C-alpha cells in the first residue's frame, strides 16, 4: 500500500514538474539542549531513573525543515532530525550508526483551492485526542478564507511476507477547521480505524473570545479498542479560559475523562509534572489509570519584553479502573521562567513538585534547563 500511495503522488508530482527545471528551496529548523535533575522517580513511574531515587540527564536534538517549490506550484516538504537522544550517565540512546532520520517527507500538488498530498505525513487532530503522529498517507485538502478541510487515508501498520498481507491498520479520517465572525472557530475531527480492532474516535472543539476572555472547549469520544484505555466507549472534555488581570495572564482549566478515554499525554497541557507534557514530567498518563477530573491554574507574568514567569497549580482525582483501589488524589506545583537571549534563541528553567503518594512510594521533584534555538 505504501508503494501505491507514493506512486500516485509521485506521478502527479512528475507531471507538474515536467514544465519546470528549477525549484525554490526554503530552509528552517530548530535545536535544543536540555538538562534535567529528577528526584524520587522510582519504579512506580515509567520515567527513568528506575533503580535510583535521583539522577541528572542530558539530551539534545537538531531538526532541519526543507521545502522545495516548483514553478508549477508542486512542492516537497521534509524534516530531518539529527543526533536526538538522551545521556543519563549509564546508557546513551543515541546510536552513532543511526542518529539521522526523517520525521516526515511528502509531496503536494495544488489544483486551485484543492491540494493533493502523499507520503510520510504528520497527523494532527487536536492535542487532546491525537496529535503529532506519523503515517504513510494520501490526503486531499481544501481551503478558502474561512474553511479548511482535510480528508485522509493513513496506513499506520503494514506487515507483508511472501506476498501476503497479515496485519493492516488503516485510518480513514477528516479534519474540519471552520472560522466564524468575531474570531470564533470550530474544529471537528474524526478517525475510523479499519482492522481487527475497528473503531472510531472523534472530537469537537470550539474557541473564541468573550470581551477579553479567551475560551477553548472540547468534547471527544473514543470507541472501545481505539485509543481507549479500556474496553468501554470513552468520553473526555475540558473547558479553558485565559483572563488578563493587570500584568498577569491567568489561565484556568477544568476537565474530565470517563470510561477509558485516553488523553494524548505528550501533547495536552497545562501540566508541569503530571502527564508527559513538559521536560520535567513524571512520564505517566493518569487517564490510563482511571476516570479522572482535574483543575489547573497557570498565571503568567510578563516581567519584561524578554522575560516571562509562570506558575502551575494542578489537582487531579482519579477513580481507578483496577478493582479494589480507592480514589487517588494527585497535586502538583511548579514554575517556569523563560528569557529571550536574542532573536531566535531563548533560555528556560522549570521546577516542579508532585504529591503522588496515592500512586507511588515517593513524591517526585524535578528541575530542568533548556536552551532553544529556532532559525
Automatic annotation (TrEMBL):
SUPFAM superfamilies: Porins. Belongs to the alphaproteobacteria porin family. The keyword Signal applies. GO terms for molecular function: porin activity. It comes from the Bacteria. One of its GO terms (cellular component) is membrane. The keyword Heme does not apply. Residues 1-23 form the signal peptide. Keywords: Membrane, Signal, Transport. The lineage of its organism: Bacteria, Pseudomonadati, Thermodesulfobacteriota, Desulfobulbia, Desulfobulbales. This is Porin subfamily protein.
Amino acid at each position: 500500500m505504501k508503494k501505491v500511495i507514493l506512486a500516485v503522488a509521485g506521478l502527479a508530482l512528475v507531471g507538474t514538474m515536467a514544465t519546470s527545471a528549477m525549484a525554490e528551496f526554503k530552509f528552517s529548523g530548530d535545536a535544543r539542549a536540555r538538562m534535567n535533575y529528577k528526584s524520587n522517580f522510582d519504579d512506580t513511574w515509567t520515567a527513568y531513573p528506575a533503580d535510583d531515587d535521583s539522577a541528572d540527564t542530558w539530551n539534545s536534538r537538531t531538526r532541519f525543515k526543507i521545502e522545495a517549490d516548483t514553478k508549477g506550484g508542486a512542492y516537497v516538504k521534509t524534516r530531518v532530525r539529527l543526533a536526538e537522544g538522551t545521556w543519563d550517565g549509564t546508557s546513551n540512546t543515541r546510536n552513532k550508526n543511526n542518529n539521522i532520520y526523517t520525521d516526515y517527507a511528502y509531496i503536494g500538488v495544488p489544483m486551485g483551492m484543492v491540494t493533493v498530498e502523499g507520503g510520510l505525513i504528520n497527523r494532527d487532530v487536536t492535542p487532546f485526542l491525537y496529535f503529532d503522529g506519523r503515517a504513510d498517507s494520501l490526503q486531499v485538502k481544501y481551503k478558502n478564507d474561512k474553511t479548511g478541510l482535510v480528508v485522509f487515508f493513513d496506513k499506520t501498520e503494514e506487515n507483508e511476507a511472501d506476498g501476503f498481507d497479515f496485519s493492516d491498520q488503516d485510518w480513514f479520517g477528516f479534519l474540519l477547521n471552520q472560522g466564524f465572525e468575531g474570531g470564533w472557530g470550530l474544529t471537528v475531527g474524526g478517525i475510523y480505524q479499519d482492522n481487527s480492532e475497528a473503531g472510531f474516535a472523534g472530537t469537537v472543539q470550539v474557541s473564541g473570545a468573550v470581551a477579553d476572555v479567551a475560551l477553548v472547549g472540547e468534547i471527544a469520544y473514543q470507541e472501545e479498542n481505539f485509543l481507549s484505555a479500556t474496553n468501554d466507549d470513552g468520553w473526555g472534555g475540558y473547558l479553558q479560559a485565559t483572563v488578563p488581570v493587570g500584568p498577569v495572564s491567568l489561565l484556568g482549566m477544568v476537565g474530565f475523562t470517563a470510561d477509558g478515554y485516553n488523553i494524548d499525554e505528550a501533547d495536552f497541557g497545562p501540566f508541569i509534572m503530571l502527564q508527559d507534557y513538559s521536560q520535567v514530567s513524571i512520564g505517566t498518563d493518569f487517564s490510563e489509570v482511571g476516570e479522572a477530573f482535574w483543575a489547573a491554574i497557570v498565571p503568567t507574568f510578563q516581567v519584561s519584553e524578554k522575560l516571562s514567569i509562570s506558575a502551575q497549580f494542578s489537582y487531579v482525582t482519579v477513580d481507578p479502573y483496577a478493582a479494589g483501589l480507592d480514589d487517588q488524589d494527585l497535586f502538583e506545583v511548579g514554575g517556569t521562567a523563560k528569557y529571550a537571549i536574542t532573536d531566535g534563541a531563548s533560555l528556560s528553567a522549570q521546577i516542579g513538585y508532585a504529591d503522588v503518594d496515592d500512586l507511588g512510594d515517593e513524591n517526585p521533584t524535578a528541575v530542568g534547563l533548556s536552551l532553544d534555538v529556532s532559525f
